[in-house]
Amino acid sequence: AVAVLLASLKVQAELITAGLLHDTVEDNPEISFRDIEVLFGPCVRRIVEGETKASKRTKKGGRGLFSNEYAAAMYRFVFEKEEKQVSEEVAKTRQQAENLRDMFLAMADDYRVILVKLADRLHNMRTLQHMPDKKRQSIALETLMVFAPLAHRLGVWLFKSELEDLSFKYLYPDEYADLDKALSMRRAQYSSTLSSAAQDLKDMLSQDPKMQNAQLRITGREKGMYALWHKMQRKPKYQNNIDNITDIIALR
């Protein structure tokens, strides 16, 4: 699953291979990094070894960081209802999360190590329903505060959006369900609007002499659910009125 996610980014074969093997040494004591190098080359070994070591260190650094009390504090923070004590807990958690991100970046001197870790976390989030409820919330909060920002730093927007949306689903299930229902009622309209706008833009570009030899691909996108919900929480004019938001859909 990790390798498939990496392949969707159209990355090099060595990185996809590393995705297949990323937890091989950790799960199988009989296999060493040297074995991986002999079979798959030094590049694959470097990525697998880097991801394994960085994961161990960051796991220690994040232990206890995303406990239930901090999760509760973050809930209040998002809804802007924090009291002084809660606000201090939020500030501490956010700082520790930032430190954890920085530690991961410092240890993973090859950006491909982080890509493997992001793909691994996304796969874990997709199968999170099999975990106990408290564990799900802890992992979701860690994902939202550490791994989604890492995906943002690397410009892996597809991973970032899904990591945020899955975290949102487990941290705020009622709000997620309400927003999903509201969007479902409008998606047919969104699809029609995007198709029409994309065709209009293609027609305009085809008539522009300066664009005759340009290789262009026009795509539509729907704003991520977490990003949309967060915007609604932060700006009163959007609260309880999704139709006031003008960038739910867009062309690229």
From TrEMBL:
Source superkingdom: Eukaryota
InterPro entries the UniProt entry points to: HD/PDEase_dom, NT_sf
A matching Pfam family: HD_4
The protein's name in its UniProt record: GTP diphosphokinase
Upper taxonomic lineage: Eukaryota, Sar, Alveolata, Dinophyceae, Suessiales
